[in-house]
Every structure is written in C-alpha cells, then in structure tokens.
Amino acid sequence: MTSDEAKALFDTAATVGHYREAAVEIGLWRSEERVLRETFSPEESLIELGCGAGRIALGLWELGYRRVLGTDFARGMVTAARQLARKLEYEVPFRVADATKLPFEDAIFDGAIFGFNGLMQIPRRERRRTALREMRRVVRPGGRLVFTTHDRDRGKDPARWAAETARWARGEQDPRLEGLGDILVDGAHGPIYIHIPSRGEVMEDLAATGWTPERDEWRPDLATEDDAVQAFSVDCRFWVVRRD
C-alpha cells in the first residue's frame, strides 16, 4: 500500500466522522492522560502527529497545556479538528503536515506525541523509520516522544498471528501488504491500514533512528478504561522514548 492510498482512506467522510465522534464523545483515555501528564509539563511546546479530529490535542488543552500543535496528513482531519476547536473556543492550532517530511526547523519542540497507534498506520517500515527520524529532528535534545502501538505477541488472538506467519512463509499474503504484521481493517468507517509490530521490532526501529526507550507499558497496566474507550481501541503498548 502506498502513502497516497493510506491518506485517501483517512480522508473519507466516514473516517473523518468516526474520528470526530471520538474527539467529542471519548476524549483522552485515562491511560493517555496518565502517561502524558507524567511525561510532559504544561509549559512545554508539543507537536502531535496524526492528530485526527483533535481528540488528544483538545484534551490536553482542557488539562492546561497551551503549547500544543496538532498535525495530520489528511486535510479532512485537520479541517474537522479546526472546526471543533472553534466550536469549543479552544485556541489549539492545527495544520496539515506529513510525519515523514515535517515542515519545521530542527529542535523547535520540547516533545512529540503520536497517539492512537498512528505511527503504525504509516505504510512500509522504512517510512515509519523516516517518521521517527523526523520527529527526532524537530524535538530538542533531551526531549521525549510518546506513542502507542499494538503488539502481536500480547494480543488476544495468538492463533491469528500463527496463521499469518504461515501464510507469509507460503507466499500467500495479501499482495497489497509489505510485511508480516501489516493488516487492512474493515469497519463501519471504512478500510484502514495498520501495522501490528512485536515489541522487539519496535526496539529495533528506535535503535535505528536514535531514540532511547525509557518506558513501555501495556495499557491495562496503566489504567482501567471505560467501555467506550475499549470499543474504540483494543489494548495497546505505550512508549516513552528520549532524544539524547
């Protein structure tokens, strides 16, 4: 799958509407609030990648964070986020930006956020590594990145991944996908690409792109989420990594 194809999936009215509903009805997860509060102070300047309709950025505004810039590569998402911010009268800026080629100077943010498994919705491993390098470039030395991933070694369906591994070994995988862990999810809001990594794979990517892991925790170990959050997203791993 190409990046243009992935962007088209996220720019559909149905997908944008799904993310807008989450921003309005769900807001910050308890686990997100805990990790973000423990990682960043309200005074820090933060960039959020893959902001969608503004769920995390607007939630941070409500917690007193006044220096958050939300970005997304899908113009429809940015439009929805801006509209919601105006409706709420929150002064949160949003702009269109591709995480693999950020239009910002070096080291101008204190930290970065890539929530809701957004990093893993970038097709192709090297492009995900490019995004990690770009985030490192725009974050100051000592700054941190918080992101989440699913984990195919800790999911609820190990039989699925055993079957997928066998399918890739036989060369019978979906030709639209690049590697083991790639899936296309069909839902009410349309098909979405996502990569489901192992923990070891993420560690390799961090080492290759200059990030030092400080913390990684499974969501249920951080907080008990309500039914709406669990329906919105299955369990995931939180990562806090530092730029040295």
Radius of gyration over all CA atoms, rounded: 17 Å
Rounded mean pLDDT is: 94
Instruction: Name the CATH superfamily classification.
Output: Vaccinia Virus protein VP39
CATH level 1 class label: Alpha Beta
Whole-number tally of structural domains: 1
Number of strands: 9
Profile the largest sheet.
7 strands, mixed
- The CATH architecture designation is 3-Layer(aba) Sandwich
- Compressed to H and E, one letter per element, the order equals HHHEHEHEEHEHEEHEHHE
* Largest sheet, spatial ordering of strands: 3-2-1-4-5-9-8
The portion of residues assigned to helices is: 40-55%
Tell me the structural class: alpha/beta
The low-confidence parts are none
CATH topology: Rossmann fold
Features:
Rossmann fold, globular, 7-stranded mixed beta sheet, single chain, alpha/beta, 244 residues
Short description:
This protein is 41% helix and 21% strand.
Task: Explain how this protein is built.
There is one protein chain. The chain is of the alpha/beta class. The protein has one domain: Vaccinia Virus protein VP39 (Rossmann fold), CATH 3.40.50.150. It is 41% helix and 21% strand. It contains ten helices and nine strands. It has helices at 3-10, 13-25, 30-39, 55-62, 75-88, 125-138, 158-170, 199-209, 219-222, 227-232, and strands spanning 46-49, 68-72, 94-96, 109-114, 139-149, 182-185, 192-195, 211-218, 237-243. Strands 3-2-1-4-5-9-8 form a seven-stranded mixed beta sheet, sandwiched between helices. Helix 4 (55-62) links the parallel strand 1 (46-49) and strand 2. The longest helix has 14 residues, at 75-88. The protein is globular. It starts with a helix and ends with a strand.
